[in-house]
Design brief:
The protein has 391 residues and is of the alpha/beta class. The chain is 45% helix and 14% strand. The chain has two domains: 26-55 and 66-219, 3-Layer(aba) Sandwich (Rossmann fold), CATH 3.40.50.2300; 230-383, Reverse transcriptase/Diguanylate cyclase domain (Alpha-Beta Plaits, 2-Layer Sandwich). The structure holds guanosine-5'-triphosphate (GTP). The site of guanosine-5'-triphosphate has 17 residues, from strand 6, helix 10 and helix 11.
């Protein structure tokens, strides 16, 4: 298959490059040394802690088994939940200013996932943002920023929504326990630490986290195509629009509609219609290759693709290329008006968002362009803007 014209190869950070705070401080090294016989493991984990997986946002990773990405992710999450089996994909972050406690806790939970640690609240927060652990075992009584302050920042950060906090504390009164739970922690582990209790609690919460992740992913997925659904797209569009406005970057949007699809359904039936939508969706998913690009089903036979940091020229090339790709699927559609196979019309909008622009207006502009593409004969893409007047 020919590559998409004018696109850059996805910039991927090389594994092992990039650093995060909390790894390799003097205390971290002391903690590793203090762990008889296993110091190297903790040290290695701490080094790995600074390594972004591949520079792409979670959930947008391509890869090889041919299943839609979202489906693969949901499957993985469900796999983690199934039977409570803990896989190496679980990450547990210990934030504690005592090397002895880190050593002890690491030994207790090391079979339950990849263990990272940080010896201060600030370092722990930075590490958590990069590594997105499922569980954070958070010491309450730390020097500087205490556990409650760290927890508050975790709760406020939308990127850390998927990380559950278990407080670890020597204060075991009912009031202390209630304060931890009221602060939003999922659980509470009392000191002195008991290995069986720690493992049971960690196991339970890893299971719950996996189930929650799977549910969250399903809630964002379109059932027929496995693409993201409109709800998720609208959220991402709002976030990307704000980011592009802040950094003054050009944002691209493509609204894609299958041509004469009613006729296709009438001729071949809804089941074949569904199959056709799935094939189109797969072409769109496969075409969203650059980091941050997102394809979603907008409703019915209409799809939408968000293309971050994309100039009008590049967006026009994308539109033409995607029209050709969908035509090249070669799905027979003898009654269609533009060609004897399935085609699509695409409305494009490229925008450097200014203070008065809105995501809704951008979608509306793309919709108007799509309407013009239909009127001009279908099987084409049209850029939003003033309609060319006849000479
Ligand atoms: N099979 C199937 N059909 C769907 C689905 N969602 C919407 N449709 C059908 O898509 C068709 C859309 O028809 P119209 O809105 O008239 O548009 P069109 O026939 O594609 O015509 P143009 O858009 O003008 O090219 C309707 O027949 C819907 O029933 C779906 O999930 N599966």
């Amino acid at each position: 298959m020919a590559g998409r014209p004018g696109t850059r190869t996805a910039a991927r950070r090389r594994p092992g490059h990039g650093r995060a705070a909390g790894a390799g401080t003097a205390l971290d090294r002391a903690a590793a040394r203090a762990r008889p016989g296993r110091g190297h493991r903790v040290r290695n984990v701490a080094r790995a802690a600074g390594r972004p997986a591949d520079g792409r946002p979670a959930g947008r990773r391509g890869g090889g088994d041919g299943r839609p990405r979202l489906r693969r992710r949901a499957g993985r999450a469900a796999g983690r939940a199934r039977g409570g089996q803990v896989t190496p994909t679980n990450t547990i972050l210990i934030i504690d200013d005592s090397p002895d406690t880190i050593r002890l806790l690491s030994a207790m939970v090391r079979e339950q996932g990849r263990v990272l640690f940080a010896t201060s609240g600030a370092a722990g927060l930075e590490l958590a943002k990069v590594q997105r652990p499922q569980l954070i075992l958070l010491d309450v009584e730390m020097q500087g920023m205490d556990g409650f302050a760290v927890n508050e920042q975790i709760r406020r950060d939308p990127d850390l929504r998927g990380s559950a906090v278990i407080f670890v504390t020597a204060q075991s009164s009912p009031e202390a326990e209630i304060a931890c739970l009221d602060a939003g922690a999922v659980d509470f582990i009392p000191k002195p630490l008991n290995a069986a209790v720690v493992q049971a609690r960690v196991r339970t919460h890893l299971r719950l986290q996996a189930a929650l992740t799977a549910l969250d992913e399903l809630a964002n997925q379109d059932g027929l195509t496995g693409l993201y659904n409109r709800r998720y797209f609208d959220r991402q569009l709002a976030a990307e629009f704000a980011r592009h406005r802040r950094h003054q970057l050009p944002l691209g949007l493509a609204l894609i509609d299958v041509d004469d699809f009613k006729l296709f359904n009438d001729r071949y039936g809804h089941q074949r219609g569904d199959g056709c939508l799935q094939e189109v969706a797969e072409a769109l998913r496969d075409g969203a290759r650059r980091p941050g690009e997102l394809a979603a089903r907008y409703g019915g036979e209409e799809f939408v693709v968000l293309l971050p940091n994309t100039t009008p020229d590049a967006l026009e090339r994308y539109g033409d290329w995607m029209c050709r790709r969908i035509g090249a699927l070669g799905i027979a559609h003898p009654g269609a008006s533009a060609a004897p196979h399935v085609t699509c019309s695409i409305g494009l909008c490229a925008l450097l968002p200014g203070p008065d622009d809105t995501a809704e207006a951008m979608l509306h502009a793309a919709d108007m362009a799509l309407y013009r593409a239909k009127r001009a004969g279908r099987n084409r893409s049209v850029m939003a803007g003033p309609e060319p007047q006849p000479a």
